[in-house]
Write the structure tokens for this entry.
Amino acid sequence: MFYRLFFALSLAVTFLLPRLGAQALSVHVYQIEEEGNPKQLEQDARFKLIQGYLRSGWSESSLSAARKVTNTLFASNIYLPRCKASIIPQAFMFQPSHAARFANLVIYDGYVEAPETGWFRFVGTGDDILMVNFDKKTVLEAGYYLPSRRKVLNGTQASYKQKIARAPHATALMVVPRASYYNVDLGGLTAGLPFEVEKGKVYAIKILYVDMGGGAGMTLLLEHLKEKHSASKGRVELPAGQKLDLFRVSDSLPQESELRRMMGRYLEGSMEWIPFNENSLIWKAVAKPAEVSGDDASASGSDEDAPKPKKKKRRKRGNTFRPL
């Protein structure tokens, strides 16, 4: 019992807690359990709840049907090499679900100060879903499922690699070193929509990671663009020797040897350590200011890029409209 507790705490410190005194993103974890076996993903309660969360403008109040399984945790980066999904409850310190079908939703939330003026885009993916909402816009949607589409896109479909690069919140697939699972299964990491920032300005950010069992993993990098239209499209290969920035909000960085030691029994073969720039820019996490770009308080609260339900058609009396 003591060993399990010590191991869980060690994992949490490794993955979640930045260096003492550094600012961080807050982390909340929710669990959804689904009974039965729906024939279509759109009928799956897990995807309905995720889609409702996106439609609400990424408001956690829409997750009332899910169970919040942790108190607030903290994180300074989004980086977990691909491994067995059983690591997620250990790393985030909650009891795993024993339901046949479940989903763990991890929500990172906070405010960051732009380190430079210019154009950027997020590059990353997750097993099973990774999404980023920056400045009140969804700028990245990646992973084995794309929930923002009315017809949920499944990574096991043969047409996935052709469709994902044309998805609403993606611009390219990027093949990167030491990411064989993602390169083979998904065609690479997903490059999101370009966005412009001003040095010193504070922006709201939310990151959604979803684990549905089996495998797990998440990587969130950043590409600094010369200009908006310089972003590559289609399927591209990261040039040899080039490393993207790791998105981080403090000076803390993951250490390969430390993660390999901690993750030993959770790894599936050798650890896939996706390289990143050791001098990655720091998007300093800050307390919520009075005025902030992309803050819910300065807008209506709905995400302009979130999936919108189709307009209801007039039907004869007695018929019931079901949106999904």
Remarks:
- The radius of gyration is 19 Å.
- The longest helix spans residues 2-15.
